[in-house]
Design a protein that fits this description.
Immunoglobulin-like, 6 helices, 28% strand
């Protein structure tokens, strides 16, 4: 086994201007086989540490801070060839390590930064591919009392140029995931010919429950509007809504990113590709069966039989007591027409319905995905009978000259589960009190209901 050792009598090499560097074969072989750990090459991002308001400033701000001081930290080289620290370390050497907290080259105290508002979210990106797309600032506020989510789109900076003039016509779109994209899409106005647009526009989602805030994600995307061609995508960011606390505004300043890449079928073998296609179709079918078709705000109130003195004050049909169903409004319904809207109306049934007299229907609201009805229907029924009944509420899209399209529905009764069961129980427990609650529309109702 051949081994090479470095000749100790070799003098340090110096290179003069105009002369080429000459290395002997002994030095070359000794360098190649010289034992020792391979140290990682420092990246420029090591000198620009990622700061977070929630991070501990007692930790080093830069990786590899214990390495030998052989690299120059930005902003520390003096104009006369000497080096001087910001904090007055005039006697330090000319080559300094990256920024260290409290060190000779650290400069300044970080105690002031510890008081930074933790409600501000700072998401910095080291990738040039991401920072080249621009940054976006927006606020999120969830109001628990009104079940509404407010997104205030503030401004963007340094967006990627999309037009021939080196500018763009940006606007912001919001989507709630998972969910029907067309149903819950919100959009800001378009700001013309700028890469630093300012919107200061608030977009509101109605009917957002606390369960939605735990499991849903808000997709915020910036696009460029083109009148003659298709609108172009600039960048996006996705925010898990569970990061937003109720009744507290949270500020986001994020870098726009490319959409997550889809898995390439060519990277898989034939067998894996077949399994993947099968699983994808199965997942799509499962999502379709559980797809949210919008939200419905219902008000339930059980009116007990009126006493003799109150009979005159009550309407005749309500004097003997019964269930009052208030259809208030719907939010981000699924679009059923080619124009991207629907012509929705609501029907209610109290089943089992032997005589088929429990059907009630609201008026049709044209071309909207967020209709407001504010209609009430009354079912004359005793309290004991109500415990065996099921209230079915369905939403339909009206079509002239053909069958109406089923959008979604919800069932409330003693055999329901989750929020619907809780709403029904609260109605029965609190006689005479109106109980309002948002419900998610699905297409899981019996097939007999889905025929109009």
């Amino acid at each position: 086994m051949r081994s090479f050792t470095l000749v100790p009598s070799l003098s340090p090499m110096t290179v003069r201007k105009g002369k080429s560097l000459a290395i002997s074969i002994q030095e070359h072989m000794a360098i190649d086989v010289c034992p020792g750990p391979i140290r990682p090459i420092r990246q420029i991002s090591a000198y620009f540490p990622r700061l977070s308001p929630t991070s501990s400033f007692a930790e080093p701000l830069s990786p590899n801070h214990a390495a030998a001081p052989g690299l120059l930290s930005p902003g520390h080289a003096g104009q006369d060839g000497g080096a001087s620290g910001r904090g007055g370390g005039g006697g330090s050497s000319g080559l300094l390590s990256p920024l260290l907290p409290g060190g000779a080259g650290g400069g300044g105290s970080l105690s002031a930064m510890s008081s930074m508002d933790t409600s501000i979210e700072i998401d910095s990106c080291d990738s040039d591919d991401n920072t080249s797309l621009g940054t976006l600032e927006f606020d999120l506020l969830y109001e628990r009392t009104t079940s509404s989510l407010h997104c205030t789109v503030l401004k963007a900076k340094g967006l990627k140029p999309m037009d021939f003039n080196g500018l763009a016509d940006p606007y912001v779109k919001l989507h709630l995931l998972p969910g029907a994209c067309k149903a819950n899409k919100l959009k800001t106005k378009t700001v013309r010919n700028t890469l630093n647009p300012v919107w200061n526009e608030t977009l509101t989602y109605c009917g957002i429950t606390e369960e939605d805030m735990y499991r849903k994600t808000l997709r915020v995307s910036v696009c460029d509007e083109d009148k003659l061609t298709h609108n172009e995508f600039i960048g996006e960011s996705r925010v898990a809504l569970r990061r937003v606390k109720p009744d507290q505004t949270k500020h986001f300043n994020i870098c726009l990113e490319h959409p997550p890449p889809l898995p390439s079928p060519t990277a898989m073998s034939t067998a894996l590709r077949g399994i993947s296609c099968y699983l994808r179709e199965w997942e799509t079918e499962q999502q379709r069966s559980l797809e949210e078709r919008g939200r419905l705000l219902l008000c339930l109130q059980y009116l007990p039989p009126a006493s003799d003195g109150d009979v005159a004050a009550e309407p005749k049909d309500r004097a003997r007591g019964g269930l009052c169903v208030g259809v208030k409004r719907c939010a981000h319904l699924a679009a059923m027409d080619v124009n991207g809207f629907s012509d929705p109306y609501v029907k209610t049934y109290l089943k089992p319905d032997v005589h088929k007299k429990s059907k009630h229907k609201t008026a049709v609201i044209k071309k909207t995905l967020n209709p407001e009805f504010n209609e009430e229907f009354f079912y004359e029924i005793s309290f004991s009978e109500l415990a065996t009944k099921t209230l079915e509420v369905t939403v339909w899209d009206y079509d002239l000259g053909k069958s109406n399209d089923f959008i979604g529905g919800v069932s409330l009764g003693c055999h329901s589960t989750g929020e619907t069961l809780q709403h029904w129980i609260d109605c029965l427990k609190n006689k005479g009190t109106k109980v309002e609650r948002w419900h998610t529309l699905t297409n899981e109702l019996p097939g007999s209901t889905q025929q109009e």
